[in-house]
Design goal:
The complex is a heterodimer of chains A (about 575) and B (about 600). With about 575 residues, chain A is α/β, with parallel strands linked by helices. In chain A, about 40% of the residues lie in helices and about 15% in strands. In chain A, strand 3 and strand 4 (about 90-95) form a beta hairpin. In chain A, helix 8 (about 180-190) crosses helix 11 (about 240-255). With about 600 residues, chain B is α/β, with parallel strands linked by helices. Chain B has 19 helices and 20 strands. Chain B has helices at about 30-40, 100-115, 130-135, 175-180, 215-220, 230-240, 270-280, 290-310, 320-330, 345-360, 380, 385-390, 400-410, 435, 445-455, 495-505, 535-555, 565-575, 580-585, and strands spanning about 1-5, 15-20, 20-25, 50, 55-60, 65-70, 80, 95, 160-165, 185-190, 195-200, 225-230, 245-250, 285-290, 315, 370-375, 400, 475-480, 485-495, 515-520. Chain B has a six-stranded mixed beta sheet, with helices on both faces. A four-stranded parallel beta sheet of chain B has the order 14-13-16-17, sandwiched between helices. Chain B has a four-stranded mixed beta sheet with strand order 15-20-19-18. Chain B is globular. Classes of the chains: A alpha/beta (about 575), B alpha/beta (about 600). At the A-B interface, helix 18, helix 19 and helix 20 of A face strand 7 and helix 2 of B.
């Protein structure tokens, strides 16, 4: 069936609404139930697909297959507690569900209507069982825009997306708005790139639109590579249509007819769901020729990345799309001016795109009212490391580290003391206890020597040695550097070797000086963002944990930990 | 306040920038590096290469040796930028002399050295190495970052090029030359991170690749990551073997470049000194490849006339250049019947030496060693081609480059600049102006036309120099009137330009009668085996002028007027393009894979 107008789409929405109604209206009188089972990669790895099969079999044998529908959703975010099973409309949230628990869910909950207490989440502070998602501290401070449909709908069913107003933003943009109006809306919303740089999305679209080339491209950067970050994967797995719809909106705005999703080949589930979603969209005429009866044509192809971190850099990504070596180019020219095969190309990140339909539907003002002065909306963080609640969290910009780590994340396990948190993945820096009350947004993070990055947040406790942490990240960037520029190719290697020398107790204070000098040189001189930011973990740990470096040093003139050392040479240092 | 206006910038808007407190007015679009240069501020470079005449622009901005500080006083956020690719903008404030910029530049070189074999003493690029020069220029006295170094085996698989990845600094000049100028696509970045270097796809041995051995990569490599295979020791051995009769021949383009290796001005003609040096080195006879070139013209002009008269395959393509021959074999195997079947000049001369000359002088061809001094690396591989070596009486034994000859002259303790002039030996030493111009792009076809024209019209040429065939442009098309016939001539130098012409021929878009192709942009004067031009294309222009000057000095300027050549045909070969000539002077090509 082809949808040719907004009216047809709204009709279809009404028709499909019943399918998701149970999950929206909390109607306790309904006789039907939905069992939502997380189908994200984390939960799948813990047998959530087998749970689904078992549930279906059991329901069938109990004669309940008609009333109870099992739905495989995207990621709920609370990965620490997976596999997650949610019962609607009862609004009961089960955690750490195993295959052995399926029987009690069906027999106790479904048949007898009794909540299975042992599967409920227990608040570690209050030591009480919590029934609903909304009551859980993990979710209380969250605001889900990019993840709005994750854990709510079946990502492989376009009707569920449409039931939740899906593709209406595209329909409105195409049939009721000019290209400039779309760009104006995004500009007004204050949305900034979620891939890390924080470049204003509307401005990027505007620059791309302005170029005179008749052929333009829009690319979705799904080459998520920060260790520990998986928000893009979760969005693509849990709500692929939101990205497809947003790409179409962006393509309309900039004047592109072709889109590419550059996705890591290591994300097979996201790839499969994207393929399913694109196929469904094509069948409904939401991708292809004359979308919504207008003269706008647009389609998307997938390009698989081979897992090179540097291909997340937009010029490297474009080189890779062209079949060339995945390495960055010198900018300018920026891709918006000269990108894919020399044509103006707009590259946006998955999470950025996921925000677009919501902004278009609810308005720029709604979005701009969320967040901080300079950073609007929300940001998804992947919370990991020494923290009680590992998972994906989406919070308004301006939320503090303390709120994320101690409220949502419920603090450090085993009563240990918080030491630092690394943001921005290997490109960021460490943030210490003094900075815990910093509101998280693009500019504040830069001020305190880190960066937003794609939103990885790795928490360290008192047991972590910060020199080792710096070494860990350096090893990653050293391996992932493309090798094109000298500081990136050799500088990161020498930084890593120097850190090895330090941690093996063979270094002198002069080595620390040399390390610092080299770190600033690599930051100053590298060709692209990857290696310009690669020394950040070294620089920030040296700044905040200098005594830990000194503790490794052997010089007898400089007793361990006293930190009286003055660098002999200040060339190039401006910390 | 100084004003800068390069020729090709004149029609552009001017902007104002400040470099080290100097106010400058520069044309819009110019880079900071260019602006600084014009203002007398030297910024060191390494990966940067701008060979306008070859259309070779390496803009990888990868070495980070030309970093300068951009002042942003307003935001107090100065930053370093690579001056080679950063365009000057109105109001830009640049400092090249801050401690931050100087340190960054020095450390970039320091880092390179920390991953470079410390073997300058024995390195083939000793004193020719740009990295070495830079270390001196930047006052590097210690390398503080010792650590792992790249450790790859040398690729010595081919007869022409040695690839030593451990010396690769990943400037990508070779890659640009190979892919963008020559369009061969052999070299590209391999590996990632610390282990990155340039090599053929999947790092297969060079000999298995479709490399033409044109040597343009060697010519632009700043270090010794790419060099020629050295054969000087073999030459010394032969000279010192009492049983061997060692004959040396020198290509047309050697006489205008060899002097550069001894501190002479580019474009100095050193034919006489070169011959003297070779004689002092105790070669048994010193011949001129130009003789082979004249012979080639006799054959090629005959072949052209034969093809014209008999409606055979046209255009005829010259094939003096072995890199070009290998290019067509790999890249256009379907066109393999288009080139002339002539052997290249030095192979022809080698053949004549081991047959005619040997017979005439009662020498056993088995004891003759023919050494060719060539401006070329591909000639080394050519001399090893099976069809050219199957008959031992018929070949060239050793090929050395101009650079290798220079090294040997130095080894022999010969003070080159103080040498008197000598003449080539007879009977294979007399040559014409026509053969001299083989050394530059367009020369072979001009030489062929000087002869073909007189043969076709039966009348002497009024105008010997075909100006319409001369120029540094990569592709040149001209129509030459010979009698009442108009011949359409194409000239391409550089394999990328050759590709355009070949595509036109393949797709039936071209109606040329004759085409000359040289693999190296500019021809043999810029060959892979010539003294390194170090990115200065003015040197190549001067060599070119010298070639034409040498032609003008010659009394005889047409190949068919070379008396020794005529004698050779009369006494030994018979008719040009005849049966004997075919047996000895012609060859064939084979279709090859493209890898």
């Amino acid at each position: 069936m082809q949808i040719k107008s907004l009216e047809e789409l709204i009709k279809l929405k009404q028709k499909s609404l019943g399918q998701v109604a149970l999950r929206l209206h909390r109607d306790n009188t309904a006789t039907e139930k939905n069992i939502l089972v997380c189908g994200g990669t984390g939960c799948l790895a813990n047998d959530s697909d087998k749970i689904i099969t078992l549930l279906n079999n059991l329901l069938k044998s109990r004669g309940m297959a008609e009333q109870v529908k099992v739905i495989r959703t995207g990621c709920f975010g609370f990965c620490e507690q997976g596999p997650i099973v949610k019962i609607e409309p009862d609004n009961v949230f089960y955690v750490r569900v195993g295959l052995k628990d399926v029987k009690s869910i069906v027999d106790e909950h479904m048949i007898k209507g009794k909540v299975v207490e042992k599967l409920l989440y227990e608040d570690p502070q209050q030591k009480e069982k919590v029934h609903t998602q909304e009551e859980m501290t993990f979710y209380k401070k969250q605001l889900r825009i990019a993840l709005r449909n994750c854990g709510l709908i079946n990502p492989e069913d376009i009707y569920e997306y449409i039931a939740l107003d899906g593709y209406q933003a595209l329909a409105k943009a195409l049939t009721q708005m000019s290209r400039d109006e779309v760009i104006e809306t995004i500009k007004k919303s204050g949305l900034r790139g979620r891939g890390g740089g924080g470049f204003p999305t509307g401005l990027k679209w505007e620059i791309t639109k302005k170029q005179e080339d008749p052929e333009k491209f829009i690319i979705c950067n799904a080459d998520e590579g920060d260790p520990g970050a998986f928000m893009d994967r979760s969005i693509l797995e849990g709500d692929p249509h939101s990205v497809i719809e947003a790409m179409a909106i962006g393509a309309y705005a900039i004047g592109a007819a072709k889109g590419i999703i550059y996705i890591r080949a290591e994300y097979p589930l996201a790839i499969s769901r994207l393929n399913t979603a694109m196929q469904q969209a094509r069948e409904m005429g939401l991708l292809g020729k004359e979308i919504f009866g207008t003269n706008f044509d647009f389609d998307i192809r997938l390009k698989y990345g081979a897992g090179a971190f540097v291909c997340g850099e937009e010029t490297a990504l474009i080189n890779s799309c062209e079949g060339k070596r995945g390495e960055p180019n010198y900018k300018p020219p920026y891709p918006a001016e000269e990108g894919y095969w020399g044509h103006p190309t707009c590259v946006n990140n998955v999470e950025t795109f996921a925000n677009i339909p919501a902004i278009m539907s609810k308005g720029a003002e709604w979005f701009a009212a969320i967040g901080s002065e300079s950073s609007k909306g929300t940001k998804v963080f992947a919370l990991a490391g020494k923290i009680n609640n590992v998972g994906l969290v989406e919070v308004p910009m301006g939320t503090t580290f303390r709120e994320i780590i101690f409220d949502i994340g419920e603090g450090i396990p085993h009563g240990k003391r918080f030491k630092a948190v690394q943001t921005g993945g290997p490109s960021g820096g460490v943030i210490t206890e003094e900075a815990l009350d910093t509101p998280i947004d693009y500019d504040h993070l830069l001020e305190i020597g880190s960066m937003m990055g794609s939103g990885g947040m790795i928490v360290m406790d008192e047991d972590d040695n910060m020199v080792n942490i710096a070494k860990f990240y350096l090893e990653f960037t050293m391996d992932e550097a493309c090798g094109r520029c000298v500081p990136g190719r050799i500088g990161t290697k020498r930084l890593f070797e120097m850190l090895q020398k330090i941690t093996s107790g063979k270094a002198t204070v002069a080595d620390l000086d040399a390390l610092k000098q080299l770190a600033y040189m690599v930051k100053d001189s590298s060709l692209c963002g990857l290696c310009q930011s690669a020394p950040n973990p070294v620089i920030s740990t040296m700044k905040h944990f200098w005594h830990e470096y000194l503790a490794f040093v052997q010089d007898i003139d400089h007793p361990q930990g006293e930190g009286k050392y003055v660098p002999k040479n200040k060339i190039g240092l401006k910390s | 306040m100084s004003k800068i206006s390069g020729n090709h910038h004149e029609d552009r808007k001017n902007i104002h920038i400040l470099i080290n407190d100097q106010e400058l007015t520069v044309p819009e679009g110019i880079t900071v590096l260019e602006a600084a240069h014009e203002a007398g501020v030297k910024i060191p470079t390494l990966c940067h290469l701008d060979l306008h005449d070859f259309q070779l622009y390496n803009k990888t901005a990868s070495c980070r040796v030309c970093m300068v500080e951009l002042v942003d006083a307003k935001n107090n956020r100065n930053k370093l930028v690579p001056s080679c690719v950063t365009k000057a903008e109105e109001g830009m404030v640049v400092r090249t002399d801050t401690i931050r910029a100087i340190t960054a530049r020095r450390m970039a070189v320091e880092l390179l050295l920390s991953n470079h074999p410390n073997e300058c003493f024995t390195c083939p690029k000793n004193l020719e190495c740009e990295l070495q020069a830079l270390a001196e220029e930047l006052n590097i006295r210690e390398i503080r970052w010792e650590g792992e170094r790249m450790d790859y085996p040398k690729d010595m698989s081919s007869d022409a090029i040695v690839k030593d990845a451990n010396k690769c600094i990943f400037c990508r000049r070779c890659e640009t030359a190979c892919n963008e100028v020559q369009t061969c696509g052999i070299l590209s970045g391999i590996g990632r991170g610390f282990n990155t270097f340039v090599g053929p796809f999947a790092n297969i041995p060079m000999v298995e690749s479709s490399c033409t051995y044109c040597g343009q990569c060697v010519q632009v490599c700043p270090t010794a990551a790419l060099t020629e295979v050295y054969h000087t020791d073999k030459v010394w051995e032969a000279i010192n073997d009492p049983d061997k009769y060692v004959i040396v021949q020198t290509a047309p383009a050697i006489r205008v470049t060899l002097g550069e290796l001894f501190g002479m001005e580019p474009g100095t003609i050193v034919t006489g000194k070169m011959v003297s040096a070779l004689k002092r080195m105790k070669f048994d006879a010193v011949f001129d490849t130009n003789f082979g070139a004249d012979l080639t013209i006799m054959e090629e002009a005959s072949e052209l006339i034969y093809r014209l008269k008999n409606n055979k395959t046209l255009p005829i393509l010259t094939n003096c250049c072995p890199a070009w021959v290998k290019f067509i074999e790999h890249q256009f195997p379907e066109l393999i019947n288009v080139p002339s079947t002539c052997k290249s000049p030095h192979i022809m001369l080698g053949t004549i030496v081991k047959t005619y000359y040997a017979e005439k002088n009662g020498l056993d061809p088995d004891n003759i060693v023919v050494v060719s001094v060539m401006p070329c690396i591909a000639k080394k591989a050519e001399a090893k081609r099976p069809e050219l070596t199957k008959d031992a009486h018929n070949n060239v034994d050793i090929v050395i480059t101009t650079r290798e000859l220079g090294a040997m002259i130095r080894e022999a303790g010969i003070e080159f600049d103080r040498l008197p002039d000598s003449d080539f030996d007879s009977p294979l030493g007399e040559t014409t102006g026509a053969s001299v111009i083989f050394g530059t792009a367009g020369g072979v076809i001009e030489a062929a036309l000087r002869t073909a024209s007189e043969w076709m019209t039966g009348e002497p040429l009024e105008r010997i120099e075909f100006e319409e065939l001369r120029g540094m442009d990569g592709v040149r098309r001209a129509t030459v009137k010979i009698g009442d016939q108009e011949l359409k001539i194409g000239i391409a130098s550089g394999l990328g330009n050759a590709r355009h012409i070949l595509e036109d021929i393949r797709d039936g878009r071209a109606d040329y009668h004759a085409i000359e192709i040289m693999a190296c942009p500019g021809g043999c004067i810029a060959g892979g085996g010539q003294p390194y031009h170090h990115g200065n294309d003015e040197i190549v222009k001067k060599r070119r002028e010298a070639i034409f000057e040498e032609d003008r000095r010659k009394k005889v300027r047409k190949s068919h007027e070379n008396k020794e050549i005529l004698e050779l045909y009369k006494n030994y070969l018979g008719e040009p393009f005849g049966q004997r000539a075919h047996e000895l002077l012609h060859t064939h090509f084979e279709e090859r894979e493209r890898i």
